[in-house]
Amino acid sequence: MRFGASERDGAAAPRSAGDGRAVANAATVLRTVLDHGPVARSAISGLCGLSPAAVSRQTTLLVRRGLLREVPAPPAGPATAAGRPRIPLDLHTGAVGGPLAGALHIGVRACVLGLVDLRGQVLARRALPHEEGLGADRLLGLVAAELDRFLAEFGGGRPLLGVGAALGGWVRPDTGTVVRHAALGWRDVPLAEVLARALGVAVRVDNHARAVGHAEILFGHPQARRSLVHLFIGNVVDAAFGIEGAVHQGPGAAAGDVAHLPVPGSTVPCACGRTGCLQATASDTALGAEAVRRGIVPEPSVGLVVDAAATGDPRADALLRERARAVGRAAALLLDVFNPAVMVVSELSSVLHEGYLDEIRAAAAELSPGSAGPGRIVAPHAGPAVLPQAAATVLLGPLFRDPAGPA
């Protein structure tokens, strides 16, 4: 079964001025169960500060909407056997009936498809390689057809909330439009509209650096809820900044372009005419090209470089450590500017192997001793599943903020 917001909630009705409190209460209850579930209704009130009556109203509503479910309680002990049984509530993530979010990350050379539950757990994922340089129409036709098959194959008949899509470049979540993605050659592509029409479900779109930031705030490192900076190193280099549970977008949702952030010590020429830009120094494109030039791999693939290093090739290991140090020096600049509680770095080798993350930390500490303390720089909590989880969070984040609203 697939449904959009209107099918899930019934016909959309205008909201009254008093609905704001109900929305906030529903979001508070849902987030409390995310953090503490399984949890009894009677305990939710103490955990979130709402009255027992408000908790009762909202849990009943959230159960009815399929977002919460009652779970079997352990056998009652002697002290509670005579009392009314307390049936815990949890997010509806069970294999039978729990809703799912589809996920799509669009990359320069490959896409990632996924299915994710309400706790952000990636239940299925698949890589979809594609030719570089495909136009938007051809690539989205390919992706939509494959994603439709993937959702049918792995959805197991469970309700589909919709699809969250993430990619690099300048993306406007409010319109679902990719304003500019230089590496794909896209301009003003109505991505959400195209995918929603092809798939027949609700679709939300955002930049992948912001999407990972949202995922960390919702599902990941506790410190991320206070403040975080996320640095995404792929074929596209982006960043995101979040504070008090919200990720900054800026006017026109254009925040996060760090392609030309100067990397201290780098002399790599950039297409912009300057030297030492982060994109030209540390992107997957730059790393792959350098690996081919050094004879480490036959084609420009970061995955091949990581595999070569894992099998003991010292040249591949040295190149990955060079990149990690460059990323660390750029990270130090962002740490000094934003001073976040935590910095999350999405970079393939450091996600897979702690040693490269240690290189990033050490290089950052050299330039910013006061802001790169122990545990300050971390990999995404989802590890190798970061991309599908982040993409799904583009859809799930708004759901947790307004469980009664559109997906």
Characterization of this structure:
The longest helix has 25 residues, at 314-338. The protein has 3 domains: 5-91, Winged helix-like DNA-binding domain superfamily/Winged helix DNA-binding domain (Arc Repressor Mutant, subunit A, Orthogonal Bundle), CATH 1.10.10.10; 100-212 and 387-401, 2-Layer Sandwich (Nucleotidyltransferase, domain 5); 223-380, ATPase, nucleotide binding domain (Nucleotidyltransferase, domain 5). Strand 9 and strand 10 (186-189) form a beta hairpin. Strands 6-5-4-7-11 form a 5-stranded mixed sheet. The protein has a 5-stranded mixed sheet with strand order 14-13-12-15-16, with helices on both faces. With 407 residues, the protein is an alpha/beta fold. The chain has 14 helices and 16 strands. The model is unreliable at 3-14 (pLDDT under 50).
Query: What structural class do the secondary elements suggest?
Result: alpha/beta
Oligomer: single chain
The CATH topology of the largest domain corresponds to Nucleotidyltransferase, domain 5
**Main beta-sheet strand count, sense and barrel state:** 5 strands, mixed
Number of helices: 14
Order of helices and strands: HHEHHEEEEEHEEEEHEHEEEHHHHEHHEH
> If you compute it from the alpha carbons, what radius of gyration comes out, rounded to the nearest whole angstrom?
22 Å
CATH superfamily annotation of the largest domain: ATPase, nucleotide binding domain
Name of the level-1 CATH class of the largest domain: Alpha Beta
| Overall tally of structural domains | 3
Regions with pLDDT < 50 over 5+ consecutive residues?
3-14
